[in-house]
Structure formats: C-alpha cells, structure tokens
From TrEMBL:
Transmembrane segments: none annotated. Keywords: FAD, Flavoprotein, Signal. InterPro entries: FAD/NAD-bd_sf, GMC_Oxidoreductase-Related. The keyword S-adenosyl-L-methionine does not apply. This is Uncharacterized protein. It comes from Rhizophora mucronata (Asiatic mangrove). The keyword NADP does not apply.
Length: 155
C-alpha cells in the first residue's frame, strides 16, 4: 500500500516544480531595475519645459552616445569616469523582460513581433529577413551568446 503512493507523490512533486519554474520565468518586476539602477530613466519622463531644466539645473553633457549596445555601453562606462555622459537607447532594459533575462526563453524573443519586443524584424534592401535588438545591451542581450563568422567570400 505504501508503494502505491510513490507515483502520486512523484507526480505532485513534478507539478510543484513545474509551477515554480513558471513563476520564476516571469522575469523581474518592472520596478526592480528602477530601485537597483536609479540612473536608468525612461525618455518619456524627461521634459523640455523650463520647470524641468530649472529643477535639474541647466547641465549639459560632454558626450551623448546613441545606442546602448555592445559598443555603446562600454564606451559610456569608460567615458563616464572622467566626463559627463548621456547614453540613449530606444529599447528597454533587459531585466524586466523574461524573454531576454532567461536563456531558455531567447527563441520567444526572436518570434515576438509586438512593439515592446526586445527585437525588431526588418528586411534588408536585398530582401533578407533579419532582426536587430532594441534593448539595453544590444544584440548580445538577444542572441543567446551565439556568434557565427561570415563566409570569407562575403567579407
């Protein structure tokens, strides 16, 4: 009789583990990165009105870097050691998107065509369908670490 319970207990344990996996794959809450990284601001929170500039001073930036990808982020970090730097990225942060944060979900990100997706499809002038990143960290955040070198005849 005691051995009859074992399959039921195994099934129950698998169900609990599966539910736990689902809950942990939802990513961080959107406010997580705002607490941990207070310097990250959405562009929609800025204003060109005089009330904004007077409350923050008329401070300018030594460098403005457009694109927070593989080159933009390290460049901004290096320059910010000695200069005032503004880094602009049109996408969001990867921490709030489970399809970027978890390796097992990267394929979902590539299939997502919604306006808030971390990747964006485009068709090149010669008709090749491709995707590019629109998230802080750039393509390295969305490609699951894959890299392939082009055939030498295309270089």
């Amino acid at each position: 009789m005691a051995f009859g319970c074992v399959p039921v207990l195994k099934l129950l344990l698998l169900l609990v583990l599966w539910l736990y996996t689902l809950s942990s794959s939802q990513g961080y809450p959107k406010s997580f990165y705002q607490h941990k990284y207070p310097f990250i601001k959405k562009a929609s929170t800025f204003s060109s009105s005089s009330s904004f500039s007077s409350s923050h001073g008329d401070r300018g930036y030594d460098y403005i870097i457009v694109g927070g990808g593989t080159a933009g982020c390290p460049l901004a970090a290096t320059l910010s050691q000695n200069f005032s730097v503004l880094l602009l990225e049109r996408g969001g942060v990867p921490f709030s998107n489970a399809n970027v944060s978890f390796l097992r979900n990267f394929h979902i990100n590539l299939a997502d065509i919604s306006p808030t997706s971390a990747s964006q499809y485009f068709i090149s002038t010669d008709g090749v369908i491709n995707s590019r990143a629109r998230v802080l960290g750039g393509g390295t955040s969305t490609n699951a670490g894959f890299y392939s070198r082009a055939n030498p005849r295309y270089e």
